Amino acid sequence: MIGTIVNVVLIVMGSMIGSVFKKGLKEQYQDILMQGMGLAVAALGVFAITKHMSDSEYPVLFIVSLAIGGVIGERINMEGKFHQLVSKVSKGNLAEGLSTAILLFCMGTLSIVGPIESALNGNQTYLFTNAILDFVTSIVLAATFGIGIALSAVVLFCWQGFFYVAAKMVSGFITPELLTEISIIGGVLILSSGLSILGVRKFRTINLIPSLVIPVIYLVAKNLLWA
Asked: How many of the other CB atoms lie within 10 Å of CB of 87?
């Protein structure tokens, strides 16, 4: 878990550095920085989708997952509860920035493969690489949305910790095909977040997060039936 701890520390450090920059930025510069951040996030989402789509053995699974997961998330109202929770901590557009940070930090392949590789082989390379990327990203996000971005480090710790423990317990079920499907859906969620920042449309991205669970259920059930 040393790689995850380093990742968390660098996100907090990056958020602190970025928040210092934000205090000295005029509103016009904050606006252009937010536009740049929105375009960058959207581009990362498109890249993740196109990179993994060709490797998918179930090209329709991500569509079904988004549909089912979206209905579940809407029923639970995850987006509304998330915004209520964040509003207790800070005013303004922190909720949008924090949701974007969580998606960027947690939905990337490195943040999923990293803890699994750490648990199974003791290899921290992916996590250290991810930590450096998140450090730079947290600086930019905090310069746009403020110090509250540091709260995403808590979510990241729980996220990577989950995969670390899961890899120790059920390593046989964590297959390349499962990681591919999760990465595609993660890319869609990141793209959705980027479009929201740009103001194209305010997508309820948080309500789509349950979509990530559907491929897990499907592929685990499939493997059990064929076992």
From this structure: 12
